[in-house]
Amino acid sequence: MIDPAEAASRRAERLVRCYPRAWRVRYGEEFTQFLADDIAERPHSVTRTADVLRSGTLARVTYAGLAGDALEPQQQMRAGLGVVGLSASAFLAAGVAIWSQLAIGWQWSSPATTATKVGMLMMSGAILAFVLAAVLAALPLAWVTLRELVSGDRRRLVLPLIAVSVGTFVLVTGSIHFGQHGWPGTRGHPWSGRGLVPGSVARFAWAATLSITSYWAHPGRLASFPAAEIAWMLLSPLALAAAVIGAATTFRRLPLEPRVLRFESWLGLTAAIVMVGFLTGASSWVISNGPDPHSLFRVGLIDFLGVTVMAAALTLAYRAAHRTLGASRRHTPTT
Amino acid sequence: MASTETPDGHTESEALASLGRYAGPATLMLSSLADGPKHGYALTKDIEQFAGVHVAPGTMYEALARLERQGLIEPLESVDRRRPYRLTAEGALALRAHLHAQRQVAEVGLRRLDSTPGLA
Questions:
Q1: What is the pTM of this model?
Q2: Which residues on chain B are in Cβ contact (under 8 Å) with A30?
Q3: What does the pLDDT look like over A230-273, one tens digit per residue?
Q4: For residues B49-88, b (16+ Cβ closer than 10 Å) or e, as one string?
Q5: Distance (Å, whole) CA A201 – CA A199
Q6: Is the dihedral of CA A152, A155, A160, A164 positive or negative?
């Protein structure tokens, strides 16, 4: 039979896992003991469990840089930028899935409605701006990473960098392969169609986001897909997750100077503004509801879902970017 | 009396009010610590005894972390995984200012109740 004190301690340890690791490092041990004492006195309390769940969730939101004032400005900037990066990744995954569908449609024929045309132009412009912002954001980080690999503490960076490399390699090579062998575009010369974007770009984007599809809700039709394509639909999100989580971990572990964090904060806000442009374009197409039910430009339930995911990601990214810039101003020494 | 500032820039009279919805639990906790250091569980038991209020563990540690950040309390060495906290000099000033303000409100309210016909 388990000792009651031991059982209380185990339950307390389970409850404390609601809190983020950084919080647990500071308060974990004493809070666990506090909870164990409370559980020993009142073994069953729904109010206590609800209070700890609420408080733990709030601590997670706070330590992600989205609320409160518990973090130092530099911690706030790092946490906020991490959220911007993760939100932007989720936004792009959902957005590129929509954009590639329209890019393929435009390979065959120009969209019939102005709303779709304008929407597609806005999304394409936003993707270009995203690429530019991503390159600008990556340059200083790549430099610091290189410096750390050559003369710093490289052990902390090895695993996340392997995750980034493997994830990116799988995603890129797989997308090129499946883009060349399965896409529903014109298969002609990259610039031969009437498309807004080169065919090679459209098919790469289509293959990279093949897993974002309503076919998951129709297993019967999904079963008719080639086995390799189904395997790719399962593997590609994992590769994307590995690359994004690896990049976020690398970012968290890099010793970054305040001016680099400030630069990244401005880019974070720029990314949020670009997301607004992309979402406006996507919404313009979704609201117009496409030209006819059989066209490649038609709007499906998955597209409404995609727009909802993008709106949620944009909200998170904007809030995180706004708070990151606020922390950046607090961190700037006034003269 | 000259006013002092807490580490986050609040004057002593503003320090507790600036805690927003945590001002209530914070006042109870500071009052409990006024007679000596206590750890989390001892704080809840003491508050239950003198105020008849149960402060739930999550709420208690949210308020405690804010009070620590404001420099109104400070942690001591852990004993048996239980970490006691004590009131700082700034905390004592802030608590005194807050309780004086509360007493003033209570006195005015009671005086008016006593002097209003039909309510006395």
A1: 0.77
A2: 39-40, 78, 81-83
A3: 899 999 999 999 999 999 999 989 999 988 999 999 999 999 99
A4: eeeeebbbbbbbbbbbbbbbebbbbebeeeeeebbbbebb
A5: 5
A6: positive
DSSP bridge partners of B85: B38, B75
Helix extents (H) in A187-300: 199-208, 219-222, 227-253, 258-288
- 3-state class percentages of chain A: helix first, strand second, coil last, to nearest 5: 80, 0, 20
Across the interface, of B62, B69, B83, the residue whose CB is closest to A30 is B83
pLDDT digits (tens, 9 = 90+) for B30-66: 999 999 999 999 999 999 999 999 999 999 999 999 9
**pLDDT tens column, A11-45:** 999 999 999 999 999 999 999 999 999 999 888 89
C-beta separation of A206 from A230 below 8 A: no
Dihedral of the alpha carbons of A224, A229, A235, A239, in degrees to the nearest 10? -150
| Reported confidence tier of residue B2, pLDDT bands at 50, 70, 90 | very low
Q: Which of A15, A18, A30, A35 to mutate to probe the B interface, most B CBs <10 Å?
A: A30
Residue B5 forms beta bridges with which residues?
A: B11
Rounded to the nearest integer, the mean pLDDT of chain A is 87
For the cut 50, the answer to whether the pLDDT of residue A186 exceeds it is no
Query: What are the boundaries of each domain within chain A?
Result: 4-63, 73-331
Q: Which chain B residue lies closest to A27 (C-alpha atoms)?
A: B61
Question: For residue A139, what are the contacts with CB-CB under 8 A and spacing of at least 6?
Answer: none
How distant is the Cα of A335 from the closest Cα of chain B, in angstroms?
18
B61: closest chain A residue by CA: A31
User: For chain B, what percentages of helix, strand and coil (3-state, to nearest 5) are there?
Assistant: 60, 10, 30
